[in-house]
Amino acid sequence: MLRATVVDDSEDLVSAVLADFSPVAIHDLAERPLPPGGLWDPTYPPIPDPPPAPLHWNVCFNEAGERDRAADAIHDALPLLTIERVDLPDEDWAARSQQSLTAVRAGSFIIAPPWDLPPEDVDATVIVIEPSMGFGTGHHATTRMCLRLLSDLDVVDMTVLDLGTGSGVLSMAAALMGARSVVGIDVDQDAIDSAEASANLNTLPDSITFQVSDFRHQPPPPADIVLANLTGGMLTSSAASIAALVRPHGQMILSGFDHTQADRVLAAFAPFTERQRLSEDNWVALLLHQ
């Protein structure tokens, strides 16, 4: 595990560097400052925002080697950043924490682990996900918002590209909505294995495929709808590459960033324009179109 102290102006760069090393989990340990007394008083004028506070991240990896490579890459990018390398005992913490997950609803979908399936007559499209290393089980706000935005689109006979597919939940949702072709790509073989394992738990059309690939170096064919639930740093640094994957008059669903990064992400994707914005727990998702 890495323990990193990240200041506001370096958060995007650290996120972009970490995205190349597929961490299992990132825990934000930042303490949220409160005003004197610990409570907001609505009878008084708003208290000015406090100065930026460092963010303390615990970043977990499957292997010490991958952790060390990520630490070296972060040090090269930000030599003054405080990083500590920590060895954790192998107690299968990831599997234990995933067992507490239950089914969640997002738009017209219910995302359920195999141990918490909804009734067969439920008024929603059920996608079964086996929680594992891949992100995107539906329990994170960014995934739920992407599913909500996707629920409102006409996907029938469209081509869909899911960048950083993780567990494949967005790809499976698009396929079940009637997309003509869905390609989910990820740089992490573990994520693709997770996506394919979960796909086998569902009855899916033949239109969906998963691939290990990096869209920045191996761009796939453009699609009518591009889904990118990544990070703010990854989206802004790769905006031109992502935009090039959208066919004329196509649409994008972007998430993986918070409200402080939303304007930068939107500006990076000009001349695409904002069609809809969702916000949950300070996370943001955008629907853009040409």
Question: Please, could you describe this protein's structure?
Answer:
The chain is α/β, with parallel strands linked by helices. The chain folds into two domains: 2-89, 2-Layer Sandwich (Alpha-Beta Plaits), CATH 3.30.70; 98-289, Rossmann fold (3-Layer(aba) Sandwich), CATH 3.40.50.150. Helices cover 27% and strands 28% of the residues. The chain is built from nine helices and 14 strands. It has helices at residues 11-19, 64-77, 93-98, 141-151, 169-176, 189-199, 232-237, 239-243, 262-268, and strands at 2-6, 25-28, 55-60, 82-85, 104-106, 109-112, 125-128, 159-163, 181-186, 208-212, 223-229, 246-258, 273-280, 283-289. The strands form three sheets. The protein has a seven-stranded mixed sheet with strand order 10-9-8-11-12-14-13, sandwiched between helices. β9 (181-186), α6 (189-199) and β10 (208-212) form a beta-alpha-beta unit. α1 (11-19) packs antiparallel against α2 (64-77) and α4 (141-151) runs parallel beside α5. The longest helix has 14 residues, at 64-77. The termini are far apart. Mean pLDDT is 83; it is low at 30-47.
Write down the secondary-structure element order: EHEEHEHEEEHEHEHEEHHEHEE
Secondary structure category: alpha/beta
Helical content band: 25-40%
CATH class of the largest domain: Alpha Beta
Beta-strand level of the residues, as a percent range? 25-35%
Largest sheet: 7 strands, mixed
Count of distinct structural domains: 2
The CATH superfamily title of the largest domain: Vaccinia Virus protein VP39
End-to-end separation: 41 Å
* CATH architecture field of the largest domain: 3-Layer(aba) Sandwich
Please mark out the parts with pLDDT under 50 across 5 or more consecutive residues, or reply none: 30-47
Number of helices: 9
Backbone CA Rg: 19 Å
Overall, the morphology is globular
Number of strands: 14
Task: Find the CATH topology of the largest domain.
Answer: Rossmann fold
